[in-house]
From TrEMBL, chain A:
This is Ion-translocating oxidoreductase complex subunit C. HAMAP family: RsxC_RnfC (MF_00461). Residues 437-518, 562-619 are annotated as: Disordered. Its EC number is 7.-.-.-. The keyword Metal-binding applies. Pfam families: Complex1_51K, Fer4_8, RnfC_N, SLBB.
TrEMBL record, chain B:
Pfam families: Rnf-Nqr. Belongs to the NqrDE/RnfAE family. Its main location: membrane. It is a multi-pass membrane protein. It comes from Parahalioglobus pacificus. PANTHER family: ELECTRON TRANSPORT COMPLEX PROTEIN RNFE, ION-TRANSLOCATING OXIDOREDUCTASE COMPLEX SUBUNIT E. InterPro entries: NqrDE/RnfAE (IPR003667), RnfE (IPR010968). Keywords: Cell inner membrane, Cell membrane, Electron transport, Membrane, Translocase, Transmembrane, Transmembrane helix, Transport. The gene is rnfE. This is Ion-translocating oxidoreductase complex subunit E.
Automatic annotation (TrEMBL), chain C:
It is found in: Cell inner membrane. Keywords: Cell inner membrane, Cell membrane, Electron transport, Flavoprotein, FMN, Membrane, Phosphoprotein, Translocase, Transmembrane, Transmembrane helix, Transport. The chain crosses the membrane at residues 20-41, 47-64, 96-113, 125-143, 200-220, 227-245, 257-274, 286-303, 309-328. The modification FMN phosphoryl threonine is found at T174. It comes from the Bacteria. It is a multi-pass membrane protein. Part of a membrane-bound complex that couples electron transfer with translocation of ions across the membrane. The complex is composed of six subunits: RnfA, RnfB, RnfC, RnfD, RnfE and RnfG. GO terms for biological process: electron transport chain; transmembrane transport. Its EC number is 7.-.-.-. This is Ion-translocating oxidoreductase complex subunit D.
């Protein structure tokens, strides 16, 4: 006998399961209309891929998965697409959602289905793809795409098949255990083949003796272990079930896979089995219809998309007795706005209680801090403290008290003697905090952007200042140089450099190769420098900056340097290439050749660049013009002084002139 | 604050900015010695005298003392005033002096006095400062006596016991027994009673303020007769 | 009729605040019967008169605060407060004493702080302490138990309450009082000297304590509260008394059994310490809270000025309850224990 662990808290609400267990599973048939919401699972809604009026066969894909966390949808039977529109659905938000509506033809014609021949030899990845294609999402209630859950990052030690079904009233899993135990076992084995666990457990509460008997018989001879444990709500919660069976707790914010555990509902196991062995997509499920407002409660095998009204009608629904229609159980289910809403993949139960059965909650009394909620909480939270903070909207305190570990099982509200709707407070607080986080992220982003902009502006200002200072200094030096009568030093330096280069070339003929490289590098870097300088210059010109002069001289200087470097390179090359042939000859010719070469290169450059340069220039001028015009218009609109308007319009005129000039130039160069 | 009118000063000291129940200053003596009317009256008188003396002196020297040393200077003045009052009481009302005990010298540390010296007297000329000291003292004293009376009444069922301590032997029979055969309700006379009754007095004051405000609002809200509707939308051509 | 839209959970357990309060009231019945048997109808008259005053005060406070009267009066909380207070008051107390006590409880300790659920201090004990420090004479005047004096009838009890002047009360020091005054006799001699000592505690007291124990155990069985706080208190008081018993010298504080069955120990453990509003909530917190009260009761009984100490101990512990709760938060599911990495 396997050791059973307990979990903190929990409650024992009246089970009310016998009502719906009196009959075997009934077939709900094919309703006239199927309404299939595109979002029946956690993740991105599927995208409809059919057109209105299109005829579909059973099993045809009618909506495709979008992204990773998504599953496709299939036509549950044959018919034609009647509409793709928003319809009321069963969703906690109570809103409408996009649905594909199928007019059924009652013939139930199917696309041919093909199962996997032998899954034991199949590649798990291929099986996972099949599971995904068949649209399987967790059928216990959450609706998480199963293919993702079955492809965990960590190796899996334990596979848990969840047949706990701890919520009162619901018997969908119980009846599956009783009637389809063999299929559950097959499904579990397929899942086991995919995740390769060391042990496979089927967890069932001890209030389902017939189910336990059936599944134990079906599991005999396999490596599946059926584990039973005392009934307590909410032992069917994934985290609680894991603690019961393994004694481990899923880390806060983590996944069961972090512990090497994967949990799947028995219904999901059956769906996986059908998908792999029969190739049948998920188009129906077993749903419990119960409550005192139906005269023939029981379990139904129902096509997805069947309107709840159809199902209720089959169960003998008396709408006069019913004031509240609940999808799911009385603890965690949500009220459905209208019986026209369809059954979806996660609809494990439809509960139609009478007022005396589930009375409308009375107004809340004051919290007397009795602590019953803390005793009942399966997450070991302090619900009364959370309630206190939720009333005061103290988000930080709420988070410090682990509000986000609340699984909303409703045990605290159930025991609360003051009838305080605690879970409602937590839901609202969670939503508030998430909104706050979103807003916070947004404002952080804006602040970062603002700060970055501020920093950039400061940096630019500093750069400008530095440049201004540099230019001033340069101007001063130039002035000084002019005053002392010294000419531009460049020719002299160039001469020296040339001489040095020559000398170097002559002396180190052995290392001529590296000398060549050096020179080449010099040319390349100088060229680069020239390019950047030119860019800067044109930018400055475009902005009308006062740096234009300084930049222009810079460009000129760099240009001359480039010329020199090229000349030096050519010279060297000439030297070097001719050296073996006429070593003794003076390098006059070589130098001349180099000069010629350089000239040629320059000409080529010049031929190419003026055109481009002119184009650049033209673009920039146009920009400037636009800006100037804008400024002029602004000035006029703002009613600036005449003087300023005049100046602005003059500058606009000038720019226009320049542009036409540049255009002419461009045309000239192009024609040439 | 050249335009400080004496009416404003009075209103501030007695009601709007009452040191005891609005500023909540000097709570220590307020809570400790208001067990009976005579104690409250004695302390109220002593505090008022000190306030007048200190405000006067501070106002006189306000232009001589530099900012940096003003607080020690004020405290010295207050301490001197307190010592004088203490000696006077020792001379003329010895028994009351003994009952008030440590709370007489502790007047020095009463925040009302230093507060008024620093906030008002050091910024105003002699006459307003003197008047402010007087009226703040009276405001403080009224609350003290009210509290003393309430506590004495609830605690012992009588009023004005032992008034001879303050007013001489002729006042010995001023005691009025309001409830015959009253069981002493010690809680009122003990410190918790002081807290509870102070709270009630503050609550009553706030209640009155609220009523006044409501009445004023109601008066303001009355539409003025003959007012015309003003066009607030559209363009005016 | 449109369908109701309510969020989960849709089901609710059978417990309600009114029912909790009713249970507490019911659980006091055996104790009240024993008290009435030994001391006459005084306690019963206290409770009835106190209940009327409590409801009147509650209604007044609710009306002043603009709350619906019927809804809040139905929660029985005022009745529980007044009943617990009146059980602790001496029988044959005058009407005004009871009225002041109940009014202090309901108005001062409860509604001034925001009503049920918001009071940091146990209202019944606040009322008791207000009376004890204001009227020490009346509050220590206990009637002699049956067998040691005439037990007054119902009419005399009513007379004692509503016309105190015309009732000549016979009073006797309580066993705890006697023990407190003792400074020369060995405990054995003290027991012989004073007729009010019974087999373990005081005559009448020991049986009343046992009756309250029965009521408390029933509440425990009904899951109105958990065992932690009462058991911690009783263990602490037993441990303290055991440590300082020294076999009954004249300086002894009394035997553990005497402390358990005297005064308001049992009554306090099951009816006062378990008041949810003013006590610690977490399980460990309740243990600390209860143990603290137990230790304080012994210390104040033996070293303090007043013979019984439950009220003071509870009020002091009430102060610490939020602090205790803060440091005894349970480990949430999926979170590492503090200290674990």
């Amino acid at each position: 006998m396997r050791k059973i662990f307990g979990f903190h808290g929990g409650i024992h609400p009246p089970e009310n399961k016998h009502q719906s267990l009196e009959h075997p599973i009934r077939d709900a048939g094919i309703p006239a209309e199927l309404i299939i919401p595109v979002s029946q699972h956690v993740g991105a809604p599927a995208a409809p891929c059919v057109e209105i009026g299109q005829a579909v066969l059973g099993g045809d894909v009618i909506a495709e998965a979008i992204g990773v966390v998504s599953v496709p949808l299939h036509a549950p039977t044959s018919g034609s697409i009647a509409a793709i529109e928003r319809r009321p659905v069963a969703h906690p938000s109570g809103s409408e959602a996009l649905c594909i509506v199928i007019d059924t033809d009652g013939e139930d014609r199917w696309r041919s289905l093909e199962g996997v021949e032998d899954y034991r030899t199949a590649d798990p990845a291929q099986l996972l793809e099949r599971i995904r294609e068949c649209g399987i999402a967790g059928m216990g209630g959450a609706g998480f795409p199963s293919a993702i859950k079955l492809a965990p990052r960590n190796p899996i030690e334990t596979l848990i098949i969840n047949g706990t079904e701890c919520e009162p009233y619901i018997t969908a899993d119980d009846i599956l255990l009783q009637e389809r135990a063999q299929r559950i076992v097959e499904g579990a084995q397929i899942i086991a083949h995919i995740v390769q666990p060391q042990e496979i457990l089927i967890g069932v509460e001890d209030n389902k003796p017939e189910g336990i008997e059936a599944i134990t018989a079906a599991a005999a001879g396999t490596d599946l272990q059926v584990v039973t444990f005392p009934t307590k709500y909410p032992s069917g919660g994934e985290k609680q079930l894991i603690e019961i069976l393994t004694g481990k707790q899923v880390p806060s914010g983590g996944l069961p896979a972090d512990l090497g555990i994967v949990c799947q509902n028995v219904g999901t196991a059956v769906a996986v089995r059908d998908a792999i062995l029969d190739g049948r997509p998920l188009i129906s499920r077993v749903t419990t219809v119960t409550g005192d407002a139906v005269s023939k409660p029981g379990n139904f095998d129902v096509l997805l998309g069947t309107p709840m009204a159809h199902l209720l009608h089959l169960a003998g629904y008396d709408e006069r007795k019913n004031r509240r229609l609940i999808m799911g159980g009385p603890m965690m289910g949500f009220s459905v706005p209208t019986p026209l809403a369809p059954v979806v993949k996660t609809t494990n139960c439809l509960l139609a209680p009478t007022e005396s059965e589930l009375p409308t909650p009375p107004p809340a009394q004051a919290c007397i801090r009795c602590g019953m909620c803390a005793e009942a909480c399966p997450a070991s939270l302090l619900p009364q403290q959370l309630f206190w903070f939720a009333q005061g909207k103290e988000s930080e305190k709420l988070e410090a008290h682990n509000l986000f570990d609340c699984i909303e099982c409703g045990a605290c509200s159930w025991v609360c003697p003051s009838h305080i709707p605690l879970v409602q407070y937590y839901r609202a607080s969670k939503a508030d905090i998430q909104q706050q986080r979103k807003d916070q992220a947004k404002s952080d982003y804006s602040r970062e952007r603002f700060e970055a902009r501020q920093a950039r502006l400061e940096r630019e200002e500093a750069e400008k200042d530095a440049k201004r200072a540099a230019r001033k200094k340069a101007a001063e030096e130039r002035a000084k140089a002019a005053a002392t009568g010294e000419g531009e030093e460049d020719p002299i330096q160039a001469a020296i450099a040339r001489a040095q280069a020559k000398k170097a070339a002559q002396t180190n003929e052995g290392s001529g190769e590296s000398e060549l490289e050096k020179l080449e590098r010099a040319v390349v870097t100088t060229q680069k420098r020239l390019d950047t300088a030119q860019q800067k210059l044109s930018a400055a010109e475009a902005e009308g900056s006062d740096l234009v002069d300084a930049l222009r001289t810079g460009v000129e200087k760099t240009q001359s340097k480039l010329d020199k470097a090229k000349a030096a390179l050519a010279e060297h090359q000439a030297n070097h290439s001719e050296a073996p042939a006429a070593a003794e000859e003076p390098p006059v010719d070589a130098a001349q050749a180099a000069i010629q070469k350089a000239m040629q290169a320059r000409e080529a450059d010049a031929q190419k660049s003026p055109q481009e340069k002119a184009r650049d220039q033209l673009g920039k001028l146009e920009q400037r013009l636009a800006k100037a015009q804008q400024r002029l218009a602004d000035g006029r609109a703002a009613g600036e002084e005449d003087k300023i308007i005049d100046a602005l319009s003059a500058s606009v005129d000038k720019l226009r002139e320049k542009i036409s000039e540049t255009r002419a130039q461009l045309a000239e160069t192009e024609s040439a | 604050m050249a335009d400080t009118s004496y009416k404003d000063l009075s209103l501030n000291g007695l009601w709007k900015n009452n040191p005891a129940i609005v500023q909540l200053l000097g709570l220590c003596p307020l809570l400790a010695v208001t067990g009976t009317v005579v104690n409250a009256l004695g302390l109220a008188a002593a505090t008022t005298m000190v306030l007048i003396c200190s405000n006067t002196a501070v106002s006189l020297i306000r232009n001589i003392v530099s900012d940096a040393v003003r607080l020690p200077a004020f405290v010295m003045i207050i301490a001197a005033a307190v010592t004088c009052i203490e000696l006077l009481m020792q001379a003329y009302t010895y028994e009351l002096y003994q009952i008030l005990g440590i709370f007489l010298p502790l007047i020095t540390t009463n925040c009302v006095i230093l507060g008024r010296a620093d906030a008002f007297a050091s910024k105003n000329s002699l006459a307003p400062a003197l008047y402010d000291g007087f009226i703040m003292g009276v405001g403080f004293g009224v609350v003290l006596v009210l509290l003393g009376a309430l506590r004495e009444l609830v605690g012992t069922g009588a009023l004005f016991a032992n008034m001879d301590l303050l007013f001489g032997p002729s006042a010995a029979n001023w005691r009025i027994v309001l409830v015959d055969d009253y069981q002493a309700f010690l809680l009122a006379v003990l410190p918790p009673g002081a807290f509870i009754f102070t709270g009630l007095i503050i609550a009553a004051k706030n209640l009155i303020d609220m009523q006044i405000k409501k009445r004023e609002d109601a008066r303001k809200a009355k539409p003025v007769k003959g007012a015309k509707r003003v066009r607030v939308t559209g363009t005016i051509s | 009729m449109p369908l109701l839209r309510i969020t989960s959970p849709h089901a609710h357990g059978p417990m309600s605040t009114s029912r909790v309060m009713q249970h507490v009231l019911l659980a006091t019945v055996p104790g009240i019967i024993v008290l009435t048997h030994f001391f006459g109808f005084g306690t019963l008259v206290n409770i009835l008169w106190g209940g009327i005053v409590a409801l009147a005060c509650e209604a007044l406070a609710l009306a002043l605060r603009g709350r619906p009267l019927a809804f809040y009066l139905k929660d029985y909380s005022a009745l529980v407060t007044s009943t617990l207070l009146c059980i602790a008051l001496p029988p044959y107390a005058p009407w005004w004493l009871i009225a002041i006590g109940v009014a202090s409880s309901v108005l001062l300790a409860k509604h001034l702080y925001g009503g049920l659920g918001y009071n940091p201090f146990n209202p019944a004990m606040v009322g008791y302490v207000v009376l004890l420090i204001s009227f020490p004479v009346q509050m220590t005047a206990w009637a002699p138990p049956r067998g040691l004096g005439e037990v007054p009838g119902l009419f005399e009890a009513l007379l004692a309450c509503f016309s105190p002047a015309s009732f000549d009360a016979v009073t006797m020091a309580t066993p705890l009082d006697v023990l407190k005054q003792n400074n020369s006799l060995l405990l054995e001699d003290l027991w012989q000297e004073n007729p009010q000592f019974g087999r373990w505690g005081g005559i009448g007291w020991e049986w009343a304590s046992l009756a309250f124990l029965a009521g408390g155990l029933w509440l425990l069985y009904q899951r109105i509260f958990t065992w932690h706080a009462p058991v911690a208190m009783l263990v602490a008081i037993t441990a303290m008394a055991g440590m300082f018993y020294d076999n009954g010298s004249s300086a002894s504080g009394g035997s553990p059994l005497f402390h358990l069955l005297s005064g308001a120990t049992i009554f306090g453990a099951f009816f006062i310490v378990t008041d949810p509003v003013s006590s610690a909530v977490s399980t460990r917190g309740k243990l600390i809270y209860g143990a603290m009260i137990g230790a304080l009761v012994y210390i104040i009984r033996v070293r303090g000025n007043y013979p019984d100490a439950v009220a003071f101990a509870v009020l002091i512990a009430n102060f610490t309850a939020p602090f205790i709760d803060y440091y005894t938060q349970p480990r949430t599911y999926g979170h590492a224990r503090k200290g674990d990495s």
